[in-house]
Design goal:
Number of helices: 7
CATH superfamily: Uracil-DNA glycosylase-like domain
Oligomer: single chain
Order of helices and strands: HEEEHHHEEHEHEH
Mean pLDDT: 95
CATH class: Alpha Beta
Shape: globular
Amino acid sequence: MNRAIDVKGHISSHPILGKYVDSDYDLPAPHKGSGVIGLIILGQDPTVKRKESRKLIKEVLNLDKHGSLRCYLAGICAGLGLDLDVNVYATNYLKNFFNRPPAQIKEVDIFQLFEPYWLPVLLEEIEPFADIPIISLGQPLLGAMVKLGASSFVHDYWGYTKNWQSGERGTYRYLAPEFNKTGRIIFPFPHQPSLNKEFYRDRLAEYIYFIRGIISSKEK
């Protein structure tokens, strides 16, 4: 956490990066389960649109509060035979607050601009959890993590085909270590609001079952 605080201080005073940073609030703390870590959950960044609400964010992904996002993630963990409060480490890729949600910052590529500062911090942060797979949240984050040759679309890992509406299912997949910047297996998930879409809602349980099989096979 000390390195992350140092990086926040550096980018806040940077002549280019600083104008996108909201430095008024402390970095949210990562979420670390009380037991053996079996899963890493990776969010994008802590920024919410309403500035006044940012002061209420004390832990990554608001996992210290019983909101809808926590319920979504707890359900995923339960389907994998894990407990969110025991077996999960959760953190953000971009750890600072921005003065606007990154989706509203159109004039620059926020991921490209901030990656040289935050990616090394992330890699150091998750190093103690050797070979632990990652769940990534949201398509923008997935797009920032993939290397050349890998799809940046979440639905491609969830068996998407052009005829999905007729019930056709493609192959469920994960993002292999050699095709992403963490060097870990990544299972891409949509943001929670996307579960309102029929495609993701109908495949959620199946994709969790697929992940459980992959994890089990690697434990043998």
